[in-house]
Structures are given as C-alpha cells and as structure tokens.
Amino acid sequence: MVEQIPVRNPRTGQFDDFITPPTPEQLKAHAERLRQAQRDWWHAGLAERITALQQWREILLARKQELASVLAVDTGRWPESVLEVEVVISSIERWCRLAPSLLVEREPAHTSIPFIELKSQLVPYPLVGVISPWNFPLLLSTMDAIPALLAGCAVLVKPSEVTPRFIRPLNETVASVPLLRDVFGFVQGAGETGAALIQLIDLVCFTGSVETGHIVGEAAARRFIPAFLELGGKDPAVVLESADLELATSAILWGSVVNAGQSCLSIERIYVAETIFDRFVEKLVDKATRVQLAYPSYQDGRIGPIIDVHQADIIAAHLRDAVEKGATIHCGGSIEQLGGGLWCRPTVLTNVNHSMKVMTEETFGPLMPVMPFSTVQQAIDLANDTIYGLSAAVFGSEQDALTVAQKLEAGAISINDAALTSVMHEGEKHSFKRSGLGGSRMGPASIMRFLRKKALIIKTEPVVDPWWFEELKTQSIS
Ligand code: ADP
After folding, report:
1. Which of 160, 214, 307 to mutate to test the pocket of ligand 1 (most atoms within 8 A of CB)?
2. I want to staple 358 with a disulfide (CB 3.0 to 4.6 A). Which of 273, 322, 455, 477 is the partner?
C-alpha cells in the first residue's frame, strides 16, 4: 500500500492537498511505456518534434494564467510564478529555433586517409529522468526536458513533493499534444520515488541540494549512467571602489530577495571596499526596508513566504548563529508567522565573518551579510573561500570588474548586475566545486548532453586488409 504524501500550503501553513506516489510496478511500467514510444519520437525526425513542441507552447500560452495560479498556490508568490511560465514558453521557442542548426549530422566527408570517408550520427539517450526542487518548480522541471525532447529522448520528470500541484495542469497541456504525450511523463513522489526513478533511466538531470545531489551522483555512478547535477550555491557579490553604488545596491538587493532568496543563484554574501562600505550599507538598508512582504494578499508586496518549512529553520539557525557570534542586524532579522505562513523580510547584517554559517553555508533566504575588504586580492580570496562555485557578481568599472571576475572560482559571473543566469540562458557554463557536475546546462552545449556521437567510418575503395599495419602498408596500398 503506497502512502499518500500531504502537501503544505506555504501561505496558510495548512496541509490542504496530497500526492500519491506510484507503486514500484507502476513506476516501472510508466518508464517502459516512455522507453517504447521514444523510438518513434526519435525516428519521426526533428521537424516533427519541433512541431509537437510548438503545439505544446501554444497550449501553454493559452493556459498561462491558470498555470501561474496553480504555481502560486505551490509557492505562495505571484510575480515569480508568472515569470516561470513565461520563461518556459520562451525557452521552447528558443530551442525550437536553435535545434536545427545544432543537431546536425555530418554528411560523408573525406578524411586524411584517401579511401576513408567519415559520416556522423547523433543518438539520443532513450529515457532521461529529471528530478527537480521546490524553489522554481515549473522552470526547473522543464529546463532540461525541453532540449532533451528535441534531441529525441523521452523524459520522465519527478518534481519536488513540496510543490507538486502544478504538475496536474502541466500534464493536461502535454496530454493534448499527440506524440509528445507518449514521451513526456510526470511522476509524483518524494526522495524514495526519485531514487527508484534513477534505477529505470539512462541519464539523470538533478537540481537540488548538495547533499541529495551527492546521493544522486553516487546512484547514477553505480548504474553507470551520466548525471548532470546543478546543486546549491553561496554566491558572492564583490563591490569594488569604482562601483556605481546606486546600481550596485539595487542589483544586489534584487539578486538577494527575489523569490524570497530561495534561489540557488541568489546573492548570499557581499564584500564591499572599505572606503565605500558605510555608504553602501546605508543605501542597501534604506532600499531593503522599503521592500514589503506580499501579505496578506499577493499584491501587497514583493516578498513571498518561505516555501519549505525546513528552510525556515535553516534561515533562523543562520541568523541565531550570526548574532551569537557578534553580527549586527540592520533590518529584518527574524522568521515571522503570518496567517500560518512563514516569512522573512529583507535582512541586512554587518560585523560578519567566515566563522559564521551565514557566510559559509547556503541560507536560501533574503539575507544580505555585508563584509568590508581592504585590498582587491582580499575580496577575491574571501569570495573564493567556499565549497560552492555556482555563480557570482562583481560591481565596478568594467575593466576592474572583469579582472576580478576572471579570478573567481564560479561558473557564471554577472558584471554590474546580479543573478543574470536567471534571465540569460545563452552562455555556456559549468558549476565549480560542489555546486554541480557535468556539461553546461545553458547555451548550445546543453542539448548535446542528451546525445551520443557515433562516427560511421567508411572504406570507399577495396584496399586489401590489413592495410593499417606499418610493415604491411607498402605491400597492401599499391
Ligand atoms: P531541496 O528540494 O531542498 O533542494 P533536495 O535536494 O533533497 O531538497 O530535493 C530535490 C529533489 O530531489 C526533490 O524532488 C526530492 O524529492 C528529490 N530527492 C530527495 N532525495 C532523493 C534521493 N535519495 N534520490 C533521488 N531524488 C531524491
């Protein structure tokens, strides 16, 4: 008997929904159906796949508002829910436009050996598994699925058990597209279902915590399948003396508090040149205190609730640890219970250092600890003093900022802005250190992760074998 999993509403704190995970047999049968259908999907060709995805995009466009509304129930916030749907719709459009120029198989061509020609073939991994988190449920369930489907794979997505409601309308949109519905499936469940899924797929894309990412990586290694992992971050912002303070404070505030800080690429620690430190903090606090909670209604402010109750505990623990070790809180600074939900206002801290969790562990909340530096090298050392390496931001004159950016150990560096990878998916990047593993999830390389390259090596003349042995070569090739 499979147990139902209750689902909490982040605005009310009530468990007002539930999901039912599949039995192991049901999961296996689902994966098998997708695997069977994948052959036709692949052999139908790219043009057919593009047509199917464009049909899906049209349906998403028509049901945009409804999808955003369900996502808002899952996550408790409105603007980011609308943004998620919009980014997914434009991502389908972008991949459909790019795929024909990327998925090119090489026609027979001459090689360095006169009687050998080379042709290439791209072979998709049959069944891709996507395991996604709760912070951007729709976006992170589809970001890898869209290029994988265009590459010719079938895809089975397991979203987070914390935010599963959006799958119902999403599944309906997929179900109305013939061909696509046979190769794009969703399965509800928690970690156990995710672990079982890994046993049934040929490649896994995982977005989530470092801890679970390591478990997923190990499970994939045992099955000898590729794992693409995008894990946590502790993104630094470095503000150089040459920075535009107005711009830097607004960008850093936005980069820290959007989605209530529940984003792997949000700014989680800030290093500011000591000569401009006081002015920076004053401006940041002034702007931070003007950002309101989206409570009691979605429209009342900009900051949504903490989505996952466990995350609220982590944020509170980081705040407690910082205060105990001497940090000063300038605004915000606590988890508030409002209407049954858990909320955290934008929080600026100073007198912080790297003995504190708030500077070293992923907080995933709207916390902005600010620390001064006296030399640029010190700023670089502090920014790199971390187990994470997802992304970062640098503010200053373009040349100064680029020089620092090139020395930071992270996969994407925003210059004079923050968290640009949330809107700019065109730059190829890797996750450094423990923030991830595997090829670039962004840019043209992303789609190639789902394909294996085959070389078809054709001998075009009846040259006697074995012509490749040095001692026989003159005799054979005459
Ligand atoms: P968070 O959602 O806080 O980022 P996790 O990294 O634990 O937390 O979860 C991300 C996704 O991984 C969720 O969909 C979750 O159900 C799934 N998951 C959790 N444990 C496992 C596991 N052992 N194997 C596969 N997936 C898992």
Report:
1. 160
2. 322
Selecting among 264, 344, 361, 362, the annotated active-site residue is 264
Query: Whats the size of the chain, residue-wise?
Result: 478
Question: Would you state the structure tokens that stand for residue 401, as one six-digit string?
Answer: 């900022």
267, pLDDT greater than 90: yes
What is the full DSSP assignment across 285-315? HHHHHTPPB--SSGGG-SB---SSHHHHHHH
- Residue 468 has what pLDDT? 73
Encode burial over 259-268: b for 16+ CB neighbours within 10 A, e otherwise: bbbbbbbbbb
- 230 catalytically annotated: yes
**Tokens in use for 50?**
């593009």
Distance 135 CA to ligand 1 centre (A): 12
- Phi/psi at 44 (5° precision): -65, -25
Output the residue whose Cα is nearest ligand 1's atom 26.
194
pLDDT at 292 over 70: yes
Residue 478, pLDDT above cutoff 80: no
308: left (phi over 0), alpha (psi -120 to 50) or beta: beta
CA of 206 to the centre of ligand 1 (A): 8
Q: For 213-228, what is each residue's pLDDT tens digit?
A: 999 999 999 999 999 9
Reference 232, options 94, 329, 135; nearest CA is 135
Distance 263 CA to ligand 1 centre (A): 15
State yes or no: pLDDT of 146 exceeds 80: yes
Residue among 18, 28, 10, 55 at smallest CA distance from 168: 18
